[in-house]
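Weekly sync, protein design subgroup
Attendees: M.S., D.O., the rotation student, P.L. (late)

Item 1: inverse folding check
M.S. brought a backbone from last month's batch and wanted to see whether the design step gives back something sensible before we order anything. D.O. pointed out we never logged the input encoding, so this time it goes straight into the notes. Structure tokens as presented (105 positions):
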């Protein structure tokens, strides 16, 4: 009986861990578009990106979030970029916390 309780507890905990991990990954997306403006911040900057589908994203880019200085790039207005990261909405604005700068042209 004790073994059955232990096994049941392990199964419940594993299900919880897997479901939490899966839910977090659902917000990871890649966007592509043109940089319209850049606003400097304390630890990085925010780039306003207009996508090909006419959506606007405010991309927060920092050294820590992209994995260190070797992955960090300073974008310029007019760059065509592809960015990967966690997407969320606030009011009527789209935001992305960039975890990878995929390409810059």
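Designed sequence read out in the meeting:
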């Amino acid at each position: 009986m004790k073994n059955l309780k232990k096994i049941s507890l392990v199964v419940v905990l594993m299900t919880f861990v897997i479901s939490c991990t899966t839910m977090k990954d659902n917000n990871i997306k890649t966007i592509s578009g043109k940089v319209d403006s850049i606003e400097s911040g304390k630890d990085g900057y925010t780039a306003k990106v207009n996508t090909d589908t006419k959506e606007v994203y405010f991309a927060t880019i920092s050294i820590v979030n992209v994995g260190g200085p070797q992955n960090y790039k300073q974008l310029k207005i007019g760059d065509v970029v592809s960015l990967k990261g966690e997407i969320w909405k606030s009011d009527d604005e789209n935001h992305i916390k960039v975890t990878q700068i995929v390409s810059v042209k």
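Discussion: The mean pLDDT is 88. Strands lie at 28-40, 44-51, 56-62, 80-90, 93-104.
Action: P.L. to compare against the previous round before Friday.
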